[in-house]
């Protein structure tokens, strides 16, 4: 693992902790904790706006920069 990978992981983990842990002291079970993390990752990867994507959500960015491919078939 190189330095850039470590920095990205630290940033991701810091964001996860900052957005999921405030006010949460305990979860009832490991399954409940996994569900919270799963929901956060799903939202982060599909709906949350990212600075590297011109402040669009990943889904909106992908839709804006992809074509259906039908116009370009030769």
UniProtKB/TrEMBL annotation:
Which InterPro entries is this protein grouped with? Integrase_cat-core
The organism sits in which domain of life?
Bacteria
Q: Please note every region of biased composition (Polar residues).
A: 54-66
Which processes are annotated in GO (biological process)?
Answer: DNA integration
Span list, region Disordered: 48-74
- Domain Integrase catalytic positions: 10-58
Supply the name of the protein: Integrase catalytic domain-containing protein
What is the phylogenetic placement of the source species in the record?
Answer: Bacteria, Bacillati, Actinomycetota, Actinomycetes, Mycobacteriales
């Amino acid at each position: 693992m190189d330095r850039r990978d470590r920095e990205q992981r630290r940033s991701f983990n810091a964001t996860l902790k900052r957005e999921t842990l405030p006010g949460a002291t305990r979860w009832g079970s490991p399954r409940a904790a996994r569900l919270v993390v799963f929901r956060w990752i799903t939202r982060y990867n599909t709906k949350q706006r990212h600075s590297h994507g011109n402040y669009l959500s990943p889904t909106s960015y992908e839709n804006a920069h992809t074509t259906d491919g039908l116009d370009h078939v030769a």
